[in-house]
Amino acid sequence: MELEKRIRAFSQLGSLLQDYSEKKYHPDNSWEADFILKLDETVKNSKNKNAWFIEENVRYAVNAIAINLKEDKIRQWVNNYPLSCLNPGEIKTIGVVMAGNIPLVGFYDFFYVLMSGNKVNAKLSSQNEILLPLLSAALVYSEPSFVDCIKFTDSQLKDIDAIIATGSDNTARYFKYYFDKYPNIIRKNRNSVAVLTGEETIEELKILGDDIFLYFGLGCRNVSKLYIPEKYDLANIFNAIEDKKEIINHHKYLNNYEYNKAIYLINQTSHLDNGFILLKEDTTLHSPVATLYYEYYVNKEELKLKLLETEEKIQCVVSNYFNKENSVKIGNTQLPGFNDYADEIDVLKFASSI
Questions:
Q1: Which CATH number fits the domain 191-318, given the four candidates 3.30.70.3270, 3.40.309.10, 3.40.50.1110, 2.60.40.10?
Q2: What Rg, from alpha-carbon coordinates, does the chain have?
Q3: What is the reported pTM?
Q4: Which of 106, 132, 116 is nearest to 7 (CA)?
Q5: pLDDT digits (tens, 9 = 90+) for 166-210
Q6: CATH class of 3-187
């Protein structure tokens, strides 16, 4: 398929998703109106398949993709690569094992593989299996040539030439064993951290709450730990995120909050509690749901070295005032661009190198 057709099809999909997000009207009985109606129903019903997928979060995920799928942005990204990365001499089939932690989490692997000119065979998580096929159907409607390039399966991936698999540290060991004979990208657990310097405004700390709480903190781009300077007043955090208190009304989040709180109380573990999130001083990166770890630092340069030592476990370093290469601005963790490859592995180059 010509590159131009791929670009136009994805940009048309982006326009549809934008129309959905902005509630733009399409004439009754048109294909676009029918798609938007189906998408709206799917968004509203996603929580029936996965209780974590509340409507607000699914809408956010759809809109985040729509923001990227604009023709000028796609062309700008494409122009970073030689044409050989986008027009394979021989078309390959790339298997993609997708996670189920947040809505549409596998979309960008789907996008990169198809934009590379190859075929995708995707195994969806049972908890995240209804949204992407719907978007795929819209893509095929815009460009029928895609029909032979996209396959979804609920069984073992077969007849593939390479694999991209995302999961936990435990499943990654299985993926590595099972798929080692193929060119592969195997992703493990990662978490994101925020580095505060004390220079942050109240408004910046408020939007840091989005990086912490969006998707209930289940994504690898969610902030699970804070690095704060000595004598930093954690009341600043509690005051700034007070507007997120309604999150405690979600039953699964509440269960995690109460469980972790009970463990800390029984074990007499020192922690802070504002009624909807627990703050605990801890040197590890991965905090449980409804818990946020923090760690004090003395010297910024020493902190940079510490982060460098653990970079294979960190997806994003979030800060507005900490000078580190590839850091993400506060409030932007869940709005990755095309170049913000998971684990910093360029999927387009991988797909074109098979």
A1: 3.40.309.10
A2: 21
A3: 0.95
A4: 116
A5: 988 899 999 999 999 999 999 999 999 999 999 999 999 999 999
A6: alpha beta
